[in-house]
């Protein structure tokens, strides 16, 4: 019966991940996934001249002639990501026919959704091994199934769910190694070899997997030195020999990417991580917001909901956290008091804390703000789920739940009956499930890039022909416009009255101050040659706009930002 519960968690997790999977247009990074997985290149898109949506979307058309070699060539030449996921996605996308001439975004998102579902039995197995408890394993599987953050990453056509599968496997090997060291047991060579393969593949899926490995190393060193400081000679004996083998093999698997990393560090594709506020408290607040989404995410979308609803859900979130955080803290304390649970709690909890410390160290130390995007939390998310599950299990253990309620009988009478602690677990899981529905219905704050909203604003505002202009530095800017073009492409099906498809201008902006590319001048020349009337939408145009003498008036009545798109509207007339 208890084993059949895992099938229930799988069914729930898969159902949540498949909800509304193909509705939203692809955002910037998803366009990159599609283009490179198809074996295509962004460099085929013309720059510095008006182009139609069809031309802009050509790299999203399946290319039967492209192979894995093309995927590798274009990815390594134009992007900053390793190739494993994209080569897998290349074969995957060949299984699905195009939709309206373009690669299916639903198919592209289905692969990470299935990989995200596979995380459910993976975390079950990890926790079953680490804690020796089916209860904790089932709670971890249930939390992975309904966590809003897990569903969010699973519905993105990106490589994070595959990376997390390798993280779960690596954490399992870490627990095995530390258990062998602390218990002076054997650490088999075949486990070390598996660990090497897992870690090497993990880095080849996402370079930030290396941050998880750094966190694991810190925990490994910290815990083992605490145990072995009075017996340092043990560091030269078994099981350390195979641990050294695993460390050396992992280093070798990572060092092959050093030449690539050197190029990544100076790439303009990564400049955006320096755009945060690393000298302020903002990164801490962002990290807190992303972490909260592990267990709760109520509808907080101010564009889709009335203000009173956003405030109401915000207050409800704070109230829930005021109750849940002390509850989880008490559960962690209880698990730490148990000799059989202390070590895995130290290992997995240590990985969470070390990974967060590394993120903040890079943010405040190197001015590379890794809190700007919620998705980077994938490096510690599986370990966090395991710790939360272990904490919640305290309230399903009869002796432990009595200890919880007995210690607080005077202050928490409402929760003091025998069955109330079990209700606490149900409430946490229920709130997480509601958060997953929030994600699936696009009402949360994790999904910020919404080209559908920008496209609808243009559709509802402009009566004249439209020119959408963006400054172009790299394929990220192209992908951002592709999201808009994708939505306009869909207008042909569900908005038949749309008879003025926009033109797009990618005005290249060179990195060198002496570059001959001048987006300000490019925009002036294109507007000067365009027939009138025309509405010029400067979207994320990071250069001066000078349309003086071009009979263009800026529309001051509209907002200036929506869904990560900053824009200005100019109405240009013939006289």
Question: N-to-C terminal Cα separation, in Å?
Answer: 78 Å
- Count of discrete domains: 2
Number of DSSP strands? 7
Stretches where pLDDT is under 50 for at least 5 consecutive residues are: 405-419
Shape: globular
Proportion of residues in extended strands? 5-15%
Class from helix and strand fractions = mainly alpha
Kindly report the average pLDDT value.
89
Short description:
This protein is 59% helix and 6% strand.
Characterise this structure:
The protein is mainly α. It has 2 domains: 2-44 and 61-87 and 105-261 and 304-440, no CATH class; 451-572. Helices cover 59% and strands 6% of the residues. The protein is built from 22 helices and 7 strands. The protein has helices spanning 2-18, 28-37, 53-56, 68-78, 84-93, 105-131, 134-146, 148-154, 160-182, 189-205, 209-228, 240-255, 258-265, 282-292, 307-336, 339-365, 381-393, 398-407, 420-440, 451-461, 475-494, 519-529; strands at 51-52, 466-472, 503-508, 534-539, 552-554, 561-562, 565-572. Strands 1, 2, 3, 4, 5, 6 and 7 form a 7-stranded mixed β-sheet that branches. Helix 4 (68-78) packs across helix 5 (84-93), helix 7 packs across helix 17 (381-393) and helix 15 crosses helix 17. The longest helix has 30 residues, at 307-336. The chain is globular and about 85 Å long.
